[in-house]
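Aim 2 progress update. The chain analyzed this quarter is reproduced below.
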Amino acid sequence: MKKNALLILAFLFVLSPLLSQDELIVNTYNRTSTSLNGSWQYIVDPYENGYYNYRYEAFDQQDSPSVNAFFRNAKPDNPSDLIEYDFDATDFLLVPGDWNSQKSELLYYEGTVWYKKSFDYRKEDTNNRVFVHFGAANYKAEVYLNGQKLGLHVGGFTPFNFEITDIVKEKDNFLVVKVDNKRLKEGVPTLNTDWWNYGGLTRDVKLIETPPLFIQDYFIQLDPSDNRIIQGYVLLNGQDKSQEKIRLHIPGLNIDQAIKTNDTGYVTFQLLTMNIQYWSTENPYLYDVVLETKDDQVVDQIGFRTIRTSGSQILLNDKPIYLRGISIHEERPLQRGRG
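Predicted structure tokens:
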């Protein structure tokens, strides 16, 4: 038993890099980015011939993947080369979007579809870093750039990103994504469910360019136990992130505070303030919030409020609020149905 447990742990240790993705960059809509939305070429692959060889071995786990691995985007050198796919000769799907509602022949299709987008990219500064960010892909996505695997993401409604600084080129990049929406007994949704598991790149795809050291993550809110205190954290990503000064600026509250990271680039803070306009359904007030380092700046709009439960009530800013809504999936907003 102990030996089996050790074997399982060893397997998970080996597998974990294959399942990993880069730490998520937050607030991508307020960062410098280049959209990859629009028309993507695609190949439907129900037997996953573009992913496995005839021994059912994954091409991307081999030292020298076959040219018939779809992520290679290979072209024949001569007419006798046996390359049985060609993205450049295929139709297009729009991104963001699902394939089921875009193509009548794919209305009830569950399985693998390969997406390909070609693009050129020149960095604003040669020292900058570049990430490819996906708002969502339903359900399992495996991502490749210029024939190299970036990683894997599982989950249809969560964003993910990968760093491509050392892979992206100024000309002739090709981004390939294998998306699989097959339902699984242990998945979400499971085999027997009450909504259709629409497949595809369902939210925005973009390139994000950052300085070498940048603001990766932050969270700013009211202290749940004291609505006069604004608290939160900031996390930097990059080299030399220890003891870095960050400016937190909220003009509407006259807050202009310098905070400093620890050795891991992380810092927490608590600030006492007065006269906060609390966010509510009647007055959904948002404050401009600016986080700034010597090389990076992120701007956000944040509403401050408290929310908690008391018995059977939900309290917003310590006042009862009634939430209206029902849980019926709406799939055809322009036709008959309820949502």
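The domain at 214-308 is CATH 2.60.40.10 (Immunoglobulin-like). The chain is about 5% helix and 35% strand. These observations will guide the mutagenesis experiments scheduled for the next reporting period.
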